[in-house]
């Protein structure tokens, strides 16, 4: 496996940081080398937090090959905000962006909406977060593997206070299966270094009960979330996984420009923490079952401010 450093930072260089590639043309036909280069660039961007772009230095031939993998601008400049919008190796299934647009109206749904791609399987996102020093990943909920811990999480008083689903195993199994059967929802288990920490529902808002409450766009995504393990609470973990799930949804479909949440209006701790990841509280409104707040993250703000 290729594991050598793929570039050197030119000493004394300023913004844009000059990065001298140490790759040959033969290296670029090896997918592992490309993965290593992206991982190295990710790590360097994470260390050079104030640097908004790198200027890559190599032969014209090497740069032309790299342009197939990286969003290089004039002068071989690689902007951080463009780099992190690539699916790269972080996104682990066919991106929804490749799914063509056909408008449909599902039974008992709120409005016309784009037809959605099929539910992915297995791990959908994985990345080493250099700020948190953790590998964070999300995988699709598995009934056999995850149901017992899901029941435990939902019956935790801290979780039940907001989710109000401290139900029996049979009832929660039916609920989880309904999520797996719903084309507008992807139920996910979040993991740190391979250890499950929480449950996330990523959903298309146009088909959701939230859609009548604001000016929804066809590719808006929404999130329902809970942390089930106490050892993974706190700002370090929250910022890591919240940034990761937002990153996943934005790179899954380039047509998604907004991500929303609709937590209970009294969840003050969430409101305070989520500002650090770029979400803004827009307004409060009344669902039939709760008083909610609408929180929104915009694509531009996320990629320009969160890396």
From TrEMBL:
Organism this protein belongs to: Photobacterium halotolerans
- Annotated pathway, please? Siderophore biosynthesis
The organism that produces this protein has a lineage beginning with: Bacteria, Pseudomonadati, Pseudomonadota, Gammaproteobacteria, Vibrionales
Task: Write the protein's name.
Answer: Aerobactin siderophore synthesis protein IucB
Q: Which PROSITE patterns match?
A: GNAT (PS51186)
Transcription among keywords: no
Q: Which UniProt keywords apply?
A: Antibiotic resistance
Tell me the Gene Ontology biological-process terms attached to this UniProt entry. Answer: response to antibiotic; siderophore biosynthetic process
Q: Has the keyword Coiled coil been applied to this entry?
A: no
Domain (N-acetyltransferase): residue spans on this chain: 136-301
Gene Ontology molecular function terms on file? N-acyltransferase activity
Q: Which InterPro entries match?
A: Acyl_CoA_acyltransferase (IPR016181), Acyltransferase_MbtK/IucB-like (IPR019432), GNAT_dom (IPR000182)
